[in-house]
Specification:
Length: 152
């Protein structure tokens, strides 16, 4: 009887392998935009000037906060990391910066624990994501230039 159960156990574990995410299956997650534009439109009733004003304020505040976080991480000031990451995460979540927020929450968590084990790497990831947000919003909020060689 035990011998007959062995193949069943193998059969139960074997199907799990194909369900593991393949690079092709993971690709759609990479394509998630760094900003939920629907959220920004909802907050501003779709008013382009209001969106630009909100985005400018976000950029000014977040640029300062990232500089403060970087200094706090380098100085190993866990409570400063927690405080600034918390504030930055709140504003970012409100504005729909979906990929940025989990990185900030991780910095907040590490700051709250008093142990900034991987905070430097998480900060670097957050800084890269912030750059992607800036590039994305620049593309969304500014009319696209004509492609090179297009008639003027």
């Amino acid at each position: 009887m035990i011998m007959k159960n062995d193949p069943i156990i193998k059969d139960e574990t074997t199907p799990a392998a194909p369900t593991a995410p393949s690079p092709q299956a993971a690709a759609p997650a990479v394509e998630v935009p760094p900003v939920e534009m629907d959220r920004l439109n909802e907050l501003t009733d779709g008013n382009a000037d209001s969106i630009r004003e909100l985005v400018d304020l976000f950029f000014k505040q977040t640029t300062q906060q990232l500089a403060q976080m970087e200094a706090a991480v380098r100085a190993n000031k866990a409570d400063d990391v927690r405080r600034v990451a918390h504030s930055c995460a709140g504003a970012s979540a409100t504005l729909g910066m979906t990929r940025f927020v989990p990185l900030l929450r991780e910095l907040e968590k590490q700051g709250a624990s008093g142990t900034l084990t991987t905070a430097a790497q998480v900060y670097e990831d957050a800084a890269r994501e912030y750059k992607l947000i800036q590039d994305f919003l620049a593309t969304q909020l500014n009319p696209a230039a004509p492609p090179p060689g297009a008639a003027h």
